[in-house]
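Supplementary material to the annual report.
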Amino acid sequence: MVRLYSLAVLHRNEQGSPQLLKAAYDLSSFGFFQRSSVQEFMAFTAKILTERTNAASRQSVKQGEYMCHIYVRGDGLCCVLTADHEYPQRVAHTLLTKVLDDFAARVESSLWSEGNAACTAYSGLEASLAKYQNPREADALTKVQEELDETKIILHNTIEAVLQRGEKLDDLVSKSQGLSDASKMFYKTARKTNSCCNFG
Amino acid sequence: MQAQRDPSAYWKMAHDPYCLEERIISDLEAIMKKDPLLEEFDVIPVTEAKNRSPVIHISHNLGIEVWCIKTVFMYCYENSFKLEPLWKKEYLRLERYTKAALLLNANITTLWNIRKKLIVNHFLDIDCDFLLTKLALSQKPKCFEALSHRRWLLQQASSSNPHWVETELSLCDRLSSRMKCNYHAWSHRQFVFSQAIKQQGFSLTLWASEYEVSDVWTKFHLSDHSGWHYRKFLLDQFRKNLDYIEQHMDVARKLLNNIPGTTTPTQLYMELLNEELQKNEDLILSFNAHETLWYYRRFLLQAGTISHAENHFLEKCCNSHKSNSKRAAATGVDGVQMRYIEHHRRWLSDFCV
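Predicted assembly:
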């Protein structure tokens, strides 16, 4: 499948704590009762990864059947894209650059640290998420952005690989305030059961 | 007969009509009866049991909290098997328990078979099972048992709902988008297509609309082998019905965007294959390392004729591979694509000899 699930813009202040500014989701392929939890988890993962990515660098992190692409700019503005494995990595990272350029052009940098409320006026994410569901849309874009090749993208096979020494994903989940009780429970059950049946 | 339908007689048979399990089953049953437009069923994880009904009904979606599943399922499961020998007398309760048990766990063929028996003997309305299988599949989109039961239902009463083809196709759409590489959903789609043809004869309109649907699907799901297989199935259907198409060439040309210069259906078929080859080439060149695309290509080549252009194509792949290699080195998929190219080259030389 070639698919995008979410696109989020975050800002990291000088202390390094991230704040979600704006996010767009496409959760139509999830079950009705799972959508709110899935959305919370995508926001949660975006924050975790933003905290653990160096300034001015790119990472791609595999987690199960999902792939999170993340780009943190030198000025602390950051974009996280959740896609599946088949979405081409290069296209994903070009898209991240484009989204952030667009965001920075539309929203003044003084507003970034103020967080969510100040940036709600920006509405470009939904459109980008819908448009780039087809990665070929981005082809023209990739050809212009050849310099991206030079940038090294760090690839991790699990979220655990991104975490610092001594940190555990389970602990982060249970401590998180952004996740509701239902979502934490959802996380626990999802770990225990493999929801798809045989003939994978 | 009348006496058994009397609710008081019905309740007397239950061990304890007010026990927790019975109440939960009644809640489930009431919602399914009240809302025939139910879309989804799911299990909701909660931390602890609260003092309220675990059954949740929001805008045509049915949910049940996880804590009660084990006891309710075991209760229904045991009762279903206990009542099975008495099915002629106890059909109402048997229906009730098998329904709840299957909703919670749809993988049990025996219980589906009990329901088949009830339907055959007119103890149970067939529409009830269309809803039940739909709900079971919304939770487990790959559940073979539910799909197989549904196919059986369609064979029993496909004519009762005049729009059954549309209903089934939209169900397949949902199942295949819910879970990737959903082999069972695409097999079901093949079954529906074949069944429609069997009943109404080959229809170019249906074929063309399915061809379009699978075109869009495969574009976005490159590695979904079942989706590509369905496309192969459609092309095969076209080839098998060339006689029919010959009599309707005007319609065929119109539906397929009026491919110029085709006068015979065979030409039209070859033209379709060429179109597909072109699209396939595009996909292989722009997306690295999807083996399914190569398999589909081999089918196309075998169905049509292999020309020398194929060697040019391989050269093109190698060249684009070289120009990409710097970029792809970071992603690690590079070697894989090269392996597919090599594999294809070997296949080509074997096949041409």
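The longest strand of chain B covers residues 40-44.
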